[in-house]
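Workshop exercise sheet. Pairs work together: one partner reads the sequence aloud, the other fills in the structure field after running the prediction. Swap roles for the next sheet.
Pair: D.N. / O.F.
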Amino acid sequence: MLAPLNEEGVDPMTGQRQARIKARAAKLHREVEGLKALRKPAQRGQEQIVQRLGIT
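Structure field:
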């Protein structure tokens, strides 16, 4: 279900919701950077690292 929009046609998110979204984005960014760090020295592709770590 979509949230009601304000006068500008934008969903006015609550501070709590914004904080949750920013925290999730930061977590995903750290995970991506971590996988990049693993791949680089090993010279492996993303699929190879994911398979080896058992990530689905």
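Discussion prompt: The CA atoms of residues 33 and 42 lie 15 Å apart. What would you look at next?
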